[in-house]
Amino acid sequence: MKMKKYFLFSIILFTVTCAVSQERNNVGNKSNNMVNQVNSDLKLLVIGVSTYQNIESLNYAHTDALAFYNFMTSPEGGRVSPDNATLLLNEKATFPNMIAALEWLIDQTKEGETVIFYFAGHGDLENKTMFQNGFLLANDCPKSSYMAGGALPVIYLQQYSATLVQKNKAKVIIITDACKSGKLAGGLEGITNTTTALQQSVENTVKILSSQPGELSYESDKWNGGAGVFTYYLVKGMMGFADRNNDKKITVGEINIYLTDKIPAETNFAQNPSVIGNPAVILSVIDSITFANLKKMQSNEILTNGDVAFRGFEDDLKKQLDSSTYKMYMDFRFCITNNYLTESHPVYGNAVELYKKLLENKNASLVHSPAKRSLIAALQNTTQITINCLLEGKESPNEFSIPKAYKELGIAYSMTDSTEISYNSIKCRYLFVKSFNSFDSNNFKEGFQNIEALLNTDPDFSPAYFIKGIANFNMGNFDIAAESFLKAVELSPNWMWAYKSAARTLFKLKKSDEAVALINKGLKINPDYGPIHSLLIDHYYRTKDTVLALEYLEK
């Protein structure tokens, strides 16, 4: 079905392009002069996540993102040069890669330029603290405890946006097609708070959001055979269907009217978009001939479901670097792509050592920034797998050991400084893995010092309390362990392993009523979590309440 749809799109695109080409030959310079010229004043970052490693996946978020990217980089659309655009889809859309792409925007955006940030995927909030005001979930996010990585805090997006406006003197357009499920850790309240956080107005920033607080964003095969309703109409509107005054330009005000008209009608008013910012800002310039042919064909198959793709951060450097420097950089890219970060390939070496050589090479200054961004991201990508396993009480795959995670996160941490927006995030995860490594080596003093340093950096980092609880439980300090586990539950109220650990410790303290109450609270959140059932069954058997034990055993 996907190939059939993609083939149909190809036929439509070919037909329109041929028609446009023929008409342009006939009309000469009558076509809009702005169209088909590369728009060098635009920077574009597009992220789409349908496939998630640990949570419920979506169907069309990545194809929505690809459709928007293709429109924005097409000669008849946004005319953004591919050199000024980054696309992260599915497994490439990890939290470290998203941060690296945002850093790329900071490095590359010049005064007076416009930055467009687009995200399609899950949005959620785990707990209402000052910091946790919503997350855009990356491919590698854990089931709970988003502070441990794998999720982009909305506050980070706001900080990057503010930096682009204040430091780079740029304009920013943020587009999100998020909050697609109420079945995540934060439930419907989570998506409500995420959307509310996204709605906060920022100077010189336009925000186009798929829904209002408390609403879901819908996707279905009803639209274009498979799409999100928001992006489907967003691209249609920007192509020209939103042009109310026929001036061949689509403004924020016009897209607001168009989306507000179309999306509620398509969803029985269950989804209502939110547009914030200067209504006079121009989003797109219409290619008159292309748009006329599209209207003439009266086809709705204007969005592509093409294969998942990834456009990296690198330009064509072959002509800009001498041959030896270019080879060194290509070796570095090979090591990044194939995960030879600290362990060496027999021919190419490893990314860390090659990065050091690139820094020492004055002829490689052009690639210093992209090399740094990609190495920091890669060092975090593998360690996030280990962290996610720790959060769920699972064994890490052999190649993702705790010592390896500790080593790689340590290198990433050493490459950042406190002026960078992502600094605290990397520092917290590094200290978390470092403390776990210390406890695992029976160095409890160092482990507790790392935990305190972590909590001084971010007092809401729930995994820190959890690891503190494990260490104290193993030392027989059950009062401190219970207090720590309960704090982890408070900060991550859907983290089932924290519920189990807290209840187990309360049983140790002979606080059975509190333990049972906590277990029942957890079972309301996740009634299918087996380990917590086992804990309750064991308790009832020990107290000789075989009726209740058998009842929970049957469950």
Protein described:
The chain folds into 3 domains: 296 residues, 3-Layer(aba) Sandwich (Rossmann fold), CATH 3.40.50; 145 residues; 96 residues, Serine Threonine Protein Phosphatase 5, Tetratricopeptide repeat (Alpha Horseshoe). The protein has 555 residues and is an alpha/beta fold. A 6-stranded mixed beta sheet has the order 2-1-3-7-8-12, with helices on both faces. A 3-stranded antiparallel beta sheet has the order 4-5-6. The protein has a two-stranded antiparallel sheet with strand order 9-10. It is globular and about 80 Å long. 52% of the residues lie in helices and 10% in strands.
Task: State the main characteristics.
555 residues; alpha/beta; Rossmann fold; Serine Threonine Protein Phosphatase 5, Tetratricopeptide repeat; six-stranded mixed beta sheet; three-stranded antiparallel beta sheet; 20 helices
Summarize this, please?
The chain has 555 residues and is an alpha/beta fold. It contains 20 helices and 13 strands. Helix 3 packs parallel to helix 4 and helix 13 (423-440) runs antiparallel to helix 14.
Element layout with pairings:
Layout lengths: L1 H26 L14 E7 L12 H13 L11 E5 L5 H14 L5 E7 L2 E2 L10 E3 L13 E3 H13 L4 E7 L9 H12 L6 E5 L9 E2 L6 E2 H13 L7 E3 H15 L7 E3 L5 E4 L2 H10 L25 H15 L13 H10 L4 H28 L9 H13 L8 H18 L3 H14 L4 H13 L3 H14 L4 H13 L3 H14 L4 H13 L3 H9 L1
Parallel strand pairs: 1-2, 1-3, 3-7, 7-8
Antiparallel strand pairs: 4-5, 5-6, 8-12, 9-10, 11-13
